[in-house]
Design brief:
This protein has 272 residues and is of the alpha/beta class. The protein contains nine helices and twelve strands. The protein has a single domain, classed as TIM Barrel (Alpha-Beta Barrel).
């Protein structure tokens, strides 16, 4: 199994991130933020694409995923929903095609306070239409679970993907987000999403004095509350992925990304 990393978890300078990560043996990268902003909405996208292509060619690396922040908006902002469903999704698909990377990460539409339960069906319609658009272009849409969204727990995320029932829609499984949403990520959460998994984000969290986890308590992989040995052993056994993606999530990024990469290599070596 190979390691990938979200490039801005090292630095937003893509060339610098690649130079650093390849020294750790990482040759697969997910794009999210660059110095000018979040992809694909950059002031000079054509120039940025040229630079990315040059770096990819020079270092012999691959772009394996794009994270444009799709559907990090709520239904109480219909203009934003329309933009994400239309122009932003189209721009993201075009960039994915240009970079020969046919995986785009999306989120399950942000929930607002006291949102009515019947909005669940509207969320399914929105995500289903996005998946259908991606399917037409040969792109896989990866739905990431995150607390505060309609796709928060493993069960809720799997239910939405199962209801939409489109082979172009899979789950970007994030056990770190899952544990904060109240799940036991492995084995409970994994057993609910394993039939739909298309990518895996790796970060870890320690519990605070009250025994709870939060985004403030991110730590080196393997030092927190998630059973990463069990989770990765299951991924290997079930032969679901050929790479997993580090999402460090706490500073100093270069130092902690390197520590997590080394910890992951050690875990993978032990469970093999």
């Amino acid at each position: 199994m190979h390691l990938a990393i979200v490039s801005d978890e090292i630095t937003r300078d893509f060339a610098a991130a690649v130079e650093i990560a390849t020294n750790w043996g990482i040759e697969r990268f997910e794009l999210r933020f660059l110095p000018e902003g979040r992809i694909p909405r950059l002031p000079d996208l054509a120039r940025t694409k040229r630079i990315i292509r040059e770096v990819v060619k020079d270092y012999g690396v691959r772009i394996v995923g794009l994270s444009p922040g799709l559907f990090k908006v709520s239904l109480n902002d219909p203009q934003a929903i329309a933009d994400h469903s239309g122009k932003l999704l189209d721009e993201s698909c075009a960039l994915a095609e240009d970079l020969n990377c046919l995986k785009i990460i999306a989120f399950g539409v942000k929930r607002f306070d006291q949102e009515p339960a019947f909005h669940h069906q509207r969320v399914i319609e929105i995500l289903g239409a996005a998946a259908a658009k991606c399917q037409q272009r040969g792109i896989t849409l990866l739905l990431e679970n995150e607390p505060g969204w309609w796709c928060d727990t493993a069960g809720n995320t799997a239910s939405i993907v199962k209801t939409i029932n489109n082979p172009a829609l899979k789950i970007n499984w994030d056990p770190g987000n899952s544990i904060i949403a109240g799940d036991v990520p492995y084995p409970d959460g994994y057993l609910k999403i394993k039939d739909f998994i298309g990518n895996l984000h790796i970060k870890d969290y320690q519990k605070d004095k009250s025994g709870r986890t939060s985004f403030r308590n991110c730590c080196i992989v393997g030092e927190g509350s998630i059973d990463w040995r069990g989770q990765l052993k299951a991924i290997l056994k079930d032969r679901l992925l050929d790479y997993v993606t580090i999402e460090t999530h706490f500073e100093p990024y270069v130092q902690n990304s390197k520590k997590s990469a080394l910890a992951l290599k050690k875990i993978l070596s032990e469970i093999r």
